[in-house]
Design brief:
There is one protein chain. This protein is an alpha+beta fold. It is built from 16 helices and 11 strands. It has a single domain, classed as Orthogonal Bundle (Cytochrome p450). The protein has a 4-stranded mixed β-sheet with strand order 1-2-7-4. The structure holds protoporphyrin IX containing FE. The site of protoporphyrin IX containing FE has 24 residues, from helix 11 and helix 16.
């Protein structure tokens, strides 16, 4: 099965044409050459950037010298109203402090403790889908967003999405996203810095979300003081001191991080799950294999996770073809030489999982859907050198372990109970906050 891919731009064209197309759709504005090239330089009126596909360059930027390639202020500009100065956009000493605390909270043992809550969310979405399983075409994206948000609230604050404050955060978040369609998690924003401003709707919805989170954080702080707090991720994050400075997060820092976990944690998981379901709808072989596996092994016991091998391979392959954070940007702190080209201080480094994951010189059958590839020598070497849905190095996603349990679990629960059938028209991938379908991601559900 060869799933949909935007038609790339052909030929060179003018810089202005590129900018026009980029503003319409970042993915299809990119040149076809990026699926074969190791690096591409772009000079525009407001930007000088280098898209790096060479695994050794990616390794240098993300793993060997990450402090010389901080996150770009472009990223901060789009996300700051909601995220404040959270770990997702901060740099330097502030970021180091935040990550020291977060990494402790996301240790593997914690994810294990969170598993029953994830499982409850999985059973809840299976139930919500029941009235829709009559074979008519539905957009699955709102449902994957809903369940991913449910997982975050249940694991972070031990409340389901139906909780009044949780559902208000979820609703306000939709508004926030509608108010700024050009912002994406990777920080690729088509407007120059001076031309960007946050309209009233953006500021209003961000303030509302932060106010709601503030209430949750204050209530939890009171429960911690009273000794009645549940032992979930929020309690862990709020009570873990930075092992170097011994300081715990201030309430404001905690609001920044909760907003980040909500944004980075639910939008990404929702995108990966929706694409996984779509891909399975066109692949009866993998769908039936996964359904058998889920029927045999899925349970509320954490030990079932290691047996969900097909679910994991499918989820991994879906994130190869449709990485939720399809591109991300760093900035050169000093002048650099990249494959014999001079990159001045301040130049943007674009890292593109979208292109790296489909690179024609690296992958066998780069555009095909094949969850079996992970057992081949090519799949294994590419997983090491050319696969980064969670980024790589010290700034990689702290929620990766969490997401690799949540995603296969949700997928297995849905496919155990429903047979998926392809839609009439395939989805068109576009970069919104994460990688989504232009008009949603449609499919048909039938009760098994
Ligand atoms: C399928 C699910 C997920 C995917 C694909 C994903 C992907 C990513 C990627 C690519 C980054 C790096 C972005 C960049 O460098 O520009 C990142 C960072 C981050 N993610 Fe995730 N993520 C997922 C789930 C989660 C979850 C569940 C959480 C927490 C509950 C989370 C929290 C974060 C945070 C806090 C960062 C910022 C890390 C830093 O800059 O130090 N993510 N994620």
């Amino acid at each position: 099965m060869i799933p949909p891919k935007p038609r790339p731009r052909e030929g060179k064209g003018s810089v202005w044409r590129f900018i026009r197309e980029f503003r319409r759709d970042i993915l299809s504005a990119q040149s076809d050459r990026l699926y074969r090239a190791w690096m591409a330089e772009f000079r525009g009126p407001f930007i000088h950037s280098f898209t790096c596909n060479d695994p050794s360059l990616v390794d240098m930027v993300l793993k060997r010298r990450p402090m010389d390639f901080p996150k770009s202020p472009r990223m901060a500009a789009g996300l700051q109203p909601l995220l404040g100065n959270s770990s997702f956009i901060s740099n330097g000493a502030t970021w180091l402090h935040q990550r020291r605390i977060i990494d402790i909270a996301f240790e593997r043992g914690r994810v294990r403790e969170a598993f029953p809550a994830m499982h409850d969310a999985a059973e809840a979405v299976v139930e919500r889908l029941a009235p829709l399983a009559d074979g008519s075409e539905i957009d699955i994206e709102p449902h994957t967003s809903h369940v991913a948000a449910d997982v975050i609230f249940r694991t972070l604050f031990s409340i389901p999405i139906e909780h009044e404050t949780a559902s208000q955060v979820f609703e306000s978040f939709r508004e926030h996203q509608d108010a700024q369609p050009m912002v994406n998690l990777g920080g690729l924003i088509a407007l120059p810095r001076w031309a960007r401003y946050h309209n009233r709707r953006v500021r209003h919805s961000a303030r509302r979300i932060r106010r709601l989170i503030k209430t949750l954080v204050a209530e939890r702080a009171a429960d911690i003081d009273a000794g009645t707090a549940p032992q979930d991720l929020a309690t862990k994050i709020m009570t873990t001191p930075d092992p170097v400075t011994n300081e715990v997060f201030t309430p404001r820092e905690m609001i920044d991080e909760v907003a980040t976990f909500f944004l980075a944690g639910h939008e990404t998981g929702a995108s990966a799950l929706a694409w996984s379901l779509y891909l399975l709808s066109g692949s009866p072989y993998w769908q039936e294999k996964l359904a058998r596996e889920a029927k045999t092994h899925l349970s509320r016991d954490f030990s079932c996770v290691k047996r969900l091998e097909t679910a994991r391979a499918v989820f991994r392959e879906a994130m190869r073809l449709y990485p939720p954070v399809a591109m991300t940007v760093r900035q050169c702190r000093h002048q650099e030489t990249l494959r014999e080209r001079r990159a001045p201080k301040g130049a943007q480094i674009v890292l593109s999982p979208w292109h790296l994951h489909r690179h024609q010189k690296l992958w066998d059958n780069p555009d095909g859907f094949d969850p079996g590839r992970w057992d081949t020598p090519n799949g294994q070497s590419c997983m090491r050198d050319a696969y980064m849905p969670f980024s790589q190095g010290p700034r990689s996603c702290p929620g990766a372990g969490f997401a690799m349990i949540e995603g296969p679990l949700l997928l297995a629960a849905i496919v155990r109970d429903y047979r998926l059938e392809e839609p009439d028209k395939p989805p068109v991938p576009v970069m919104r906050l994460t990688l989504r379908g232009k008009d949603g991601i449609h499919l048909r559900l039938h009760k098994r």
